[in-house]
Write a structure and sequence with these properties.
By secondary structure, this protein is α/β, with parallel strands linked by helices. A seven-stranded mixed sheet has the order 3-2-4-5-1-6-7, with helices on both faces. Helix 3 runs parallel beside helix 5, helix 4 packs across helix 6 and helix 5 runs parallel beside helix 6. The protein starts with 5 loop residues before the first strand and ends in a 10-residue tail after the last strand. The protein has one domain: P-loop containing nucleotide triphosphate hydrolases (Rossmann fold, 3-Layer(aba) Sandwich), CATH 3.40.50.300. It has six helices and seven strands, in the order E-H-E-H-E-H-E-H-H-E-H-E-E. The longest helix has 20 residues.
Length: 181
């Protein structure tokens, strides 16, 4: 069962977020579209991409989209299929390397997610919990990633944080009450 239409899956590197998101998508009886944002700029990245492809069954259709993600998401999202976007962190990196307007692209993606006709799962890295990057570019990336994650989380029905392979639902957030003595 897929109780939420738009889900953001966050986690650190090698946290299990992609595996969790894939399992979530495979838990529903819909056609599956994988929107890949990675680009194989070197041999190591080529191997990572090949491993991710190998981990998906034949039931997946794959579309590679390193830059025009909002437009592609709008074109692919439909009530008869589920779209898995993996990952927003690489998409952001692609945008920055291409010297695109990240703020505008973030707003465009958030709008595309909100308007999606069918279920969407988006995977992204949580990068703001470590040390402050030493370079201006590193700090700009970390800040842009944090803003991107916030924008997408705001338009998703659910946000899941995966740590050491274990998911934790963080949106909808648990309700707390404050008792005053």
């Amino acid at each position: 069962m897929f109780p939420h239409r738009r889900v953001l899956v966050l986690g650190g590197a090698r946290s299990g977020k992609s595996r969790y998101a894939q399992g979530l998508a495979e838990s529903v009886p819909l056609a599956r579209i994988f929107l890949a944002t990675a680009q194989a700029h070197d041999g190591e990245m080529s191997e990572r991409i090949a491993k991710h492809r190998q981990d998906r069954s034949e039931s997946w259709s794959t579309r590679e989209e390193p830059l025009a993600l909002p437009e592609t998401l709008q074109a692919e999202a439909g009530i008869e299929r589920i779209v898995l976007v993996d990952c927003l962190t690489l998409w952001l990196s692609n945008l920055m390397l291409a010297q695109r307007n990240v703020e505008e692209a973030t707003l465009s993606l958030a709008s595309a997610v909100e308007r999606s006709a069918g279920p969407v799962i988006l995977v992204s890295n949580e990068v703001g919990q470590g040390i402050v990057p030493a370079t201006p570019l590193g700090r700009a990336f970390r800040d842009a990633q944090g803003r991107l994650n916030q924008a997408i989380a705001a338009c998703c029905d659910a946000v899941v944080l995966v740590t050491a392979g274990y998911p934790r639902l963080i949106k909808p957030a648990p309700a707390f009450t404050l008792e005053l003595a």
